[in-house]
Amino acid sequence: MKKGVIRPGHVQLRVLDMNEALNHYRDLLGLIEVETDSQGRVYLKGWTEVDKFSVVLREADAPGMDFMGFKVMSNAVLDQLQQALVEYGCQVEEIPAGELNGCGRRVRFEAPTGHLFELYAEKENTGKWGVSQVNPEAWPQDLKGMKAKRFDHCLLYGPNIEGTCALFQEVLGFDLAEQVVDPDGKKAGAFITASMKAHDVAFIECPDKGKFHHASFFLETWEEVLRAADLISMTNTSLDIGPTRHGLTHGKTIYFFDPSGNRTEVFCGGDYHYPDHEPVTWTTEQLGKAIFYHDRQLNERFLTALT
């Protein structure tokens, strides 16, 4: 049952050197640099995104993810979900409007996996970058790098993904679109969505709390993914795996690392999900094919390089 969550809204990432990070996220990935706030955080967005920002970079001593935010339909929905989280037993913190530039009040909670999530209803709408709302052109002519269109999802590692899925499904109205199960039928991986996408956030079972695997950004075509691979080589960027196809979600993908060690994905295609669809299930014995459909072999770095 849908409960008013619209989409992933933003992710705040920790980076070791801001200038190097901007070379990655702005110049290589092609996000639009929006502004820098009084704390030194840098705000960016994909060119098709209508809200002011979707990625926030914070310089820190260790890489990783601070939090991921989801936009909800209205402040009334935000109030309802805040109360539902409290009644479910979550510790909830309210972040005042303006703590992130252009963003309304946020309701923050910790999932059983140890990750911080937040909900918000309001963010300044600045429109698609470089494209008019009336009689728009197909795309801006001065985009950089991979020309990433939007922030799409995160993959996160932590314990008790069963409990985390229950929280997202029962309280926030997400659907389980795809899963990986072990021989005992327990979830080893869960791909959940608040929309028609294959996933808006995904979790892999891991004993360590709060681990970040990757942030993913949408491209339109396989040709654009191949072009991204060329740019990774041209800039001597650290490549993880790809270009290839996933079995899970069937997206066409490539993974690479920012200079701080945070993993980035760009992808195209992938499955869709309606609320009446049954979850797609993969078994752990087919995990190699589930992750890397073509060579059907697990890349140990892909499973263990986390921030």
UniProtKB/TrEMBL annotation:
Keywords carried by this UniProt record: Aromatic hydrocarbons catabolism, Dioxygenase, Iron, Metal-binding, Oxidoreductase, Repeat
Domain VOC: 7-122, 150-269
Subunit note: Homotetramer.
Protein name per its UniProtKB record: Metapyrocatechase
Cofactor: Fe(2+)
Keyword Zinc recorded: no
GO MF annotation, one: catechol 2,3-dioxygenase activity
Protein family per UniProt: Belongs to the extradiol ring-cleavage dioxygenase family.
PROSITE patterns: EXTRADIOL_DIOXYGENAS, VOC
InterPro entries: Catechol_2-3_dOase (IPR017624), Fosfomycin_Res_Enzymes (IPR051332), Glyas_Bleomycin-R_OHBP_Dase (IPR029068), Glyas_Fos-R_dOase_dom (IPR004360), VOC_core (IPR037523), Xdiol_ring_cleave_dOase_1/2 (IPR000486), XylE-like_N (IPR054560)
EC category name: oxidoreductase
Catalytic reaction annotation: catechol + O2 = (2Z,4E)-2-hydroxy-6-oxohexa-2,4-dienoate + H(+)
Source species, domain of life: Bacteria
SUPFAM superfamilies, sorted: Glyoxalase/Bleomycin resistance protein/Dihydroxybiphenyl dioxygenase (SSF54593)
Enzyme Commission identifier(s): 1.13.11.2
